[in-house]
Amino acid sequence: MSKPRGAWVTGELLPLAIVLAAAGVLFSRNLHTATDYDEGVYLASLDALRHGQQLGSEVFASQPPGFYLLLRLVAWPFGHSIVGIRTGFLIVALVACLAAYFLGRAVGGRWAGLGAAALLAIAPPFPTEAPRVAADVPSVALAVAALALAAYGFRRRGLVLPALAGAVFALAVFVKLLALPALVPLAALALWGRASLRQGTAVVIGAVVVAAAFAIGYAGVLGDLWRQSVSFHHSARGFGGGEPNGHTVAHFLSFHTPFAWLVVLGVLAASVAARRTWPLWLFAVGAAVFLLWQKPLFEHHLVLLAAALAVPAGAGLGAAVVRFPNALIGSGVLVAAIAAGYGQQVHRIDLQRTSEPAELLWGARCLAAVTRPGELVASDQPIVAFRAHRVLPGPLVDTSFVRLESGSLPPEQLLETVDHDRVPAVFAGRAFLREPKLLAGLRARYPRQLAYNGVRLFLAPRAGSRAARAFGRGSCSDRPASR
Q: How many domains is the chain built from?
């Protein structure tokens, strides 16, 4: 007998809406923080693609091609607004929470689903990274969605949901290889749901169809995309720094946060009262192994481990609470603990929120003043070009330390690109300043320089004359710009 509509709304839909709304408010606290370097790369890549440059052959692909399709789709309604584009990525993060709900619900019931969604929303560094223009959260969101489709599909004996699970998993991998560990719980869910051979075949076919679509769509640049988004990252493993991966993964759970204690309680709950959630814990195992291999390992990669721990722990806690002798007290304690984690994440985000550095805003205003719309510019801080509404040559959208030092973008090639595209202005504020050979080449090509707070703007003669007029108007002074 089905539940009355009113009971379903108040007992399931309303709590889910509250969780998602609270998550959205939390994620939005980071909308106005300063952009990081990777965001600048992706936003500059977006501009280059919008102006007709081709991914792989012209625009350097830091990630697999699926990310750039998703980037264009998410950014389409928002134009050049950084906050607007971030809002699109925030919505993708909410989709991850929604997918976590359905995944938890499939293995442990509605309270397991609510626990999974709520715990993912507060799992650091997920809230901090949620609105970032980056591939990590979208790839994880799609991976969790694929697992949810598989969990429901294998139980219902149909072929459509398993095929969709395979397709969405492949899409997650084509957004970023970070999604690969989701293959482990996907296989475990097939065992858990006693999937038939036909269902397993449907998963494979769904994945193959997506892979074939990408292969056909990018047939002319497959070699370039492989070298840029796979081989380059493999060769960059030697440029890792900071703490060893094992230390980072082992100390991922900070017991100064409620989230860490909730994960521990989730493990206990799963072993005692929520054993049906066991396939989801294999996601955490796969994620940890993958991150031990990942080099260099940055904080944004840890959203994978955050999701891989939050979903099974939250599902285990939610499923266990309803089995307590007094479920009302148990659920109240769980809600209070999650609320404490929520408050802690609000505090953490507020402490880390910063403004865009003044020298980058200055560079954006000067680039806009000394160049014409449609002219290509160069910069080792791609966000400067994006803020100035100027486009970078595709090979120069990512001018990171790793590309310059690994030989992926040697100074000779960079200068050749500048010459070929007749770039009138070059902004140097990061990696360029550490390359003496490159700086010498820029000085030889650009007779005039402007400097501010340690950054430099190299100007060709035609841009130099416009710079003189800009100084006269006060549009390229030492007053920071805004956008």
A: 2
- Sorted by sequence, the CB contacts under 8 Å of residue 50 that are 6+ apart come out as 72
What span, in angstroms and rounded, lies between the C-alpha atoms of 112 and 280?
A: 12
Q: What is the spatial distance between Cα 65 and Cα 134, in angstroms, rounded to a whole number?
A: 13
Task: Report the distance separating Cα 124 and Cα 106, nearest Å.
Answer: 24
Whether 406 and 316 share a structural domain: no
**Are 347 and 363 in the same domain?**
no
Residue 295 lies in a domain: yes
Segment 149-157 mean pLDDT: 93
Boundary residue ending a domain (352, 384, 417) = 352
- pLDDT tens across 107-142, in order? 999 999 999 999 999 999 999 999 999 999 999 999
Same domain? 269 vs 409: no
- List the structure tokens of 173: 């991998």
Average pLDDT of the residues of the chain: 91
C-alpha dist (Å) from residue 324 to 32, 272, 278, 334, 366: 43, 12, 20, 12, 64
pLDDT of residue 471: 57
Domain boundary among 304, 333, 352: 352
Find residue 379's DSSP bridge partners.
427
Identify the residue with better confidence: 391 or 465. 391
Question: 338 with 375, same domain?
Answer: no
- Tell me the helices (H) and strands (E) count for the chain, helix number first: 24, 4
425 domain residue, yes or no: yes
The residues that bridge with 457 in the sheet, in sequence order, are: 427, 450
The proportion of the chain whose per-residue pLDDT surpasses 70, expressed as a percent, equals: 91
Q: Are 32 and 82 in contact (CB under 8 A)?
A: no
- Residue 429: the pLDDT is 95
The pLDDT, as a whole number, for residue 26 is 98
List C-alpha distances in Å: 397 to 81, 208, 437: 18, 31, 20
Place of tokens 């002798």: 325
Question: Is pLDDT at 1 greater than 50 in this prediction?
Answer: no
pLDDT, tens digit (0-9, with 9 covering 90-100), for 348-384: 999 999 999 999 999 999 999 999 998 999 999 999 9
> Contact 208/168 with Cβ under 8 angstroms?
no
- Domain range for 466 is 358-473
Tell me, yes or no, whether 267 and 210 share the same domain.
yes
